[in-house]
């Protein structure tokens, strides 16, 4: 005997009324796009308290500066890859109806002879207006992005942004700022590094420098050196030579009260290796503190792996195995000059700085701790 069919079987399920997720108000959205030597990155966010909430994002390796060291120009293939990425960004901006935005380009476009032609091509093909910013503004925005990671115990702060085409260093004296106010005082630098009307109890920029050597440009300088360890050593010492004009380079820095904040793919990759992560996890990396000895151990591990081993490492991979060594050479040079027990890893940078600067300028961020 066949089982009796339950009553109501086969009927359509009754619809359940659940509210659709509320879309953010386009009038409250901000966008920031960073077109660098290697990557194109964008964030769309809305202010939330003293920070912001990310609504949409984009990141892609476009290698805009490929061949730039040799020719002084952006190649057709590099520009085509970048325009394709920027089309996706334009679609995201349009879909979210973003009105407030800053779309900036950095070292590759600062150096390329045909950069202006490229900017016009981007405008013509995507409708986006890219702005080439000066090194000082790039450095200032990188500093602002790291404000939430600054310790209230820090008196001397070095912010390092290792990019594809350049590296920015900013040394800030926080000793006259009340402890509780030290992180927030960094955000106020959006007005400029040397503001004449800065109050006495404000963050003071001792010196800043933009070294025209990043992970891509430093690698290209020493491409002809075959030995892996020799190339690494040469890159590190060559980068240190370029720090001679940076005022704090001449002074020995006590570890007590000194903090370095490092923002770059190099620093986050080193942090992921230190933690032994099989898959990158931003929540574990951003804000992590490491000592000089811990970082040195990771870098020595990279050298022991060699190019083939680094390619097979899931945290590095085929595309980044050479770049991680030029970035590590920069990092090692900095820690040779200024050893620290507190290097804070920042998975943030120019995009976040652009957002903080826009929102702070509009007065939509709340005062208080991050």
UniProtKB/TrEMBL annotation:
The keyword Hydrolase applies. This is Guanosine-5'-triphosphate,3'-diphosphate pyrophosphatase. Transmembrane segments: none annotated. Pfam families: Ppx-GppA. The keyword Hydrolase applies. Residues 1-26 are annotated as: Disordered. The gene is gppA_2. SUPFAM superfamilies: Actin-like ATPase domain. InterPro entries: ATPase_NBD, GppA/Ppx_hydrolase, Ppx_GppA_N. It comes from the Bacteria. Residues 44-359 form the Ppx/GppA phosphatase N-terminal domain. One of its GO terms (molecular function) is guanosine-5'-triphosphate,3'-diphosphate diphosphatase activity. Its EC number is 3.6.1.40. Keywords: Hydrolase.
């Amino acid at each position: 005997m066949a089982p009796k069919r339950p009553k109501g079987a086969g009927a359509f399920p009754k619809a359940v009324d659940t509210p659709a997720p509320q879309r953010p108000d386009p009038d409250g959205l901000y966008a920031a796009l960073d077109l660098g030597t290697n990557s194109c990155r964008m964030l769309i966010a809305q202010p939330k308290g003293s920070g912001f909430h990310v609504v949409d994002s984009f990141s892609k390796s476009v290698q805009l500066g490929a061949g730039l060291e040799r020719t002084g120009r952006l190649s057709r293939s590099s520009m085509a890859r970048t325009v394709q990425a920027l089309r996706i960004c334009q679609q995201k901006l349009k879909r979210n109806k973003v009105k407030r935005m800053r779309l900036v380009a950095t070292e590759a476009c600062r150096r390329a002879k045909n950069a202006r032609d490229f900017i016009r091509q981007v405008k013509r093909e995507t409708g986006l207006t890219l702005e080439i910013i000066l090194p000082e503004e790039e450095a200032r925005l990188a500093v602002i992005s790291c404000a939430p990671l600054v310790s209230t115990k820090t008196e001397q702060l070095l912010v390092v942004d290792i990019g594809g085409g350049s590296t920015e260093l900013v040394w800030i004296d926080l000793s006259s700022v009340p402890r509780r106010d030290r992180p927030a005082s960094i955000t106020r630098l959006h007005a400029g590094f040397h503001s004449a009307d800065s109050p006495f109890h404000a963050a003071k920029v001792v010196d800043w420098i933009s070294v025209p050597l990043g992970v891509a440009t430093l690698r290209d300088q020493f491409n002809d050196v075959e030995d892996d360890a020799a190339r690494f050593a040469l890159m590190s010492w060559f980068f240190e030579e370029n720090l001679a004009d940076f005022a704090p380079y001449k002074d020995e820095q006590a570890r007590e009260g000194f903090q370095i904040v490092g923002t770059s793919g190099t620093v986050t990759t080193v942090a992921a290796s230190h933690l032994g992560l099989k898959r990158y996890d931003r929540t574990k990396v951003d804000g992590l503190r490491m000592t000089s000895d811990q970082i040195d151990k990771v870098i020595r591990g990279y050298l022991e792996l060699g190019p083939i081993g680094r390619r097979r490492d899931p945290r590095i991979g085929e595309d980044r195995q050479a770049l991680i060594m030029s970035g590590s050479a920069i990092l090692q040079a900095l820690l040779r000059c200024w050893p620290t027990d507190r290097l804070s890893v920042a998975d943030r940078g120019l995009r976040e700085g652009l957002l903080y600067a826009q929102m702070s300028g509009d007065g939509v961020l709340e005062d208080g701790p991050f």
